[in-house]
């Protein structure tokens, strides 16, 4: 029989990335936190935590965390009903998303559910190719991802296709692309990437123009909204979801540089099969809103 107090300690240590901070959250001493982790490892018979920086759960540790998160979901869903006071009980919902979905349609999807219930939403942001890892590790109940196959114990729904356009301001086009868009002009034109793991722009330019990543200037900006700002200010050209810049395209503030060659990313909503209550309603709302928004592009 698992001691959920020990699983809770493991979860807090991984979330806080520090034994001292975990001790503060749990209102115990650091040695007590260490002892709980050791007790869990003795119960399981193998390590559950890689004690390095960053602190990472082992393979069995990740399975335990996934199980613990599912139990927490069930508890959060049923305890307010049992107490008869679900008006003030806060329910935490962890969702993994790419930054572009969050910047365009996702907030609108969860609005009604958050208004109806006291829900605290915690978004884990990553590239749409990597969000599935949060679900795999049990850190979220659902993930927006490009993965086409469901994880064990999970299911998926197709949300639709997100279109990305290569855009820039008219001034930027005049400054850098007066002689056309080619390998020579791209070599000096600044681009934008979300982070070091964001390879969408690199692959697009390499496949379309044969220009290797690292051979042209590139800003790094960890904000989907900032991409739009960089493009509008004439600081860079970049790939932006069509949903996010329809007004700018219509007004001429931004120009589609490659209208015949957009990027199409098919998105799926992955979630645990066992969803009830608020979590099921959030899931339904996400699917409905995404399919509406992505279809309207």
Structural overview:
Strand 1 (49-50) and strand 2 form a beta hairpin. The protein contains 12 helices and 11 strands. The chain is elongated and about 70 Å long. By secondary structure, the protein is α/β, with parallel strands linked by helices. The chain has 2 domains: 1-89, Arc Repressor Mutant, subunit A; 90-297, D-Maltodextrin-Binding Protein, domain 2 (3-Layer(aba) Sandwich), CATH 3.40.190. Helix 1 packs across helix 2, helix 2 (19-26) crosses helix 3 and helix 5 (99-116) crosses helix 12 (277-295). Strands 3, 4, 5, 6, 9, 10 and 11 form a 7-stranded mixed sheet that branches. Strands 1-2 form a two-stranded antiparallel ribbon.
Which helices and strands, and how do they pair?
Elements: H1 4-16, H2 19-26, H3 30-44, E1 49-50, E2 56-57, H4 59-83, E3 91-97, H5 99-116, E4 119-125, H6 132-136, E5 142-145, E6 154-168, H7 170-176, H8 183-186, E7 191-193, H9 200-209, E8 218-220, H10 224-232, E9 238-241, H11 246-251, E10 255-256, E11 263-272, H12 277-295
Parallel strand pairs: 3-4, 3-5, 7-8
Antiparallel strand pairs: 1-2, 5-11, 6-9, 6-10, 6-11
Helix pairs in contact: 1-2, 1-3, 1-4, 2-3, 5-12
Label the overall shape.
elongated
What ranges have pLDDT less than 50 throughout 5 or more consecutive residues?
Answer: none
Which fold name corresponds to the CATH topology of the largest domain? D-Maltodextrin-Binding Protein, domain 2
**For the CA atoms, what is the radius of gyration?**
22 Å
Helix content estimate: 40-55%
| Gap between N and C termini | 51 Å
Number of E-state strands:
11
The portion of residues forming beta strands comes to 15-25%
**Total individual domains:** 2
What CATH architecture label of the largest domain applies?
Answer: 3-Layer(aba) Sandwich
Average pLDDT level: 90
Major beta-sheet overview: 7 strands, mixed
How would you spell out the order of helices and strands? HHHEEHEHEHEEHHEHEHEHEEH
């Amino acid at each position: 029989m698992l001691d959920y107090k020990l699983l809770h300690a493991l979860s807090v240590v991984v979330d806080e990335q520090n034994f001292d901070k975990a001790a503060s959250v749990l209102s115990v001493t650091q040695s007590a936190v260490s002892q709980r982790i050791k007790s869990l490892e003795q119960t399981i018979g193998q390590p559950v935590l890689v004690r390095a920086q960053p602190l990472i759960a082992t393979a069995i540790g990740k399975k335990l965390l996934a199980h613990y998160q599912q139990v927490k979901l069930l508890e959060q869903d049923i305890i307010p009903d049992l107490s008869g006071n679900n008006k003030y009980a806060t329910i935490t919902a962890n969702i993994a998303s790419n930054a572009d979905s969050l910047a365009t349609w996702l907030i609108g999807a969860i609005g009604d559910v958050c208004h109806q219930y006291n829900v605290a939403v915690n978004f884990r942001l990553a590239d749409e190719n990597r969000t599935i890892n949060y679900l795999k590790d049990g850190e979220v109940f659902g993930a927006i991802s490009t993965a086409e196959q469901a994880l064990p114990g999970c299911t998926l729904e197709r949300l639709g296709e997100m279109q990305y356009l290569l855009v820039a301001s008219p001034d930027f086009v005049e400054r850098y692309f007066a002689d056309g868009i080619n390998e020579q002009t791209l070599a000096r034109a600044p681009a934008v990437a979300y982070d070091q793991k964001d390879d969408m722009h690199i692959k697009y330019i390499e496949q379309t123009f044969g220009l290797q990543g690292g051979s042209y200037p590139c800003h790094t900006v960890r904000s989907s909204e900032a991409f739009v700002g960089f493009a509008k200010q004439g600081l860079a050209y970049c790939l932006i979801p069509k949903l996010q810049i329809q007004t700018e395209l219509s007004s001429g503030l931004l120009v589609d540089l490659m209208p015949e060659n957009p990027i199409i990313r098919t998105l799926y909503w992955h979630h645990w099969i066992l969803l009830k209550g608020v979590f099921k309603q959030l899931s339904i709302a996400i699917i409905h809103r995404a399919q509406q928004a992505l279809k309207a592009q």
